[in-house]
Amino acid sequence: MAIPLIIDTDPGVDDAFAIALAARSPEVELVGLTTVFGNVALDLTTRNALRLLAHLGRTDVPVVRGAEGPSGAPEVHGEDGLGGQALTLPDNDRGIFGDDVVGFFRERLTPETVVVAIGPQTNIARALEAGVEFPRLIVMGGGLGLGNTTERAEFNFWADPEAARTVIRRGNPLVVPLNLTHRCIADAEFLGEVDPVLSNLTGTYRAYMENRSENQGIYVHDAVAVAEAIVPGTLKTTTHLLDIDDEGALVDGNHQVEVAEDTDWPALRAFMEQRLSV
Question: Tell me: the pLDDT tens digits for 137-179?
């Protein structure tokens, strides 16, 4: 039986790879996408989610418009969130399913559902505060002594530290941090093997990476988190005592948090290449 999966997302180039990975994996039933501000503004993340599903032939998957807030990564993902290529993707005639994310979670969650949150944690925190219980919650965010927005804070947690704190304290998440995802690079060879429509979204991100490191590719942060939902046990975890400070940084605390610390990247890379090929 396929695992029901909901992705909370702010597409975003690596979000696009994550969504495609889920849409093309028979192990999961993609129940819906809930959108949130983040890499770009909410209007754009919602539009991008709709267009990505249209490209993937999955207009059956509902898109629920979620929380608004400040956006912040045009230098990485482009002004439109998809490397300037969003409008090359097809329209999704289905349109937005609604804007009640908490209600969507209440209606669609089952004891088997996995929710993967790969943007700022605002939607998830609001649901937790409204009494929603997530059977399994996987979160891409944070870093153990590592940041990508400030020296210590990762973007998703930095964008809404209070929400991240709520999720860490009340959501019982599996956290997929930068310490792991920075080892998972989709290089030029990888990008040459997968769906060229997805590869075409990566130009701005690749230029950003090339200007700041020797990496000739992109981090696939969000796809790493989604891979764990598709094949549980893909990521090796350790329990840490953590909390979130006012900057959005993971710090020592007294809340038990499962943190993904390792994976077989060559095997995971091969899995992603196979699923993301046309």
Answer: 999 999 999 999 999 999 999 999 999 999 999 999 999 999 9
Kindly state the tokens that stand for 275: 């699923």
Sign of CA dihedral 92, 36, 249, 228: negative
55 contacts 32 by C-beta, under 8 angstroms = no
Average pLDDT score over the chain? 96
Active site residues: 221
Map tokens 């992705």 to a residue: 7
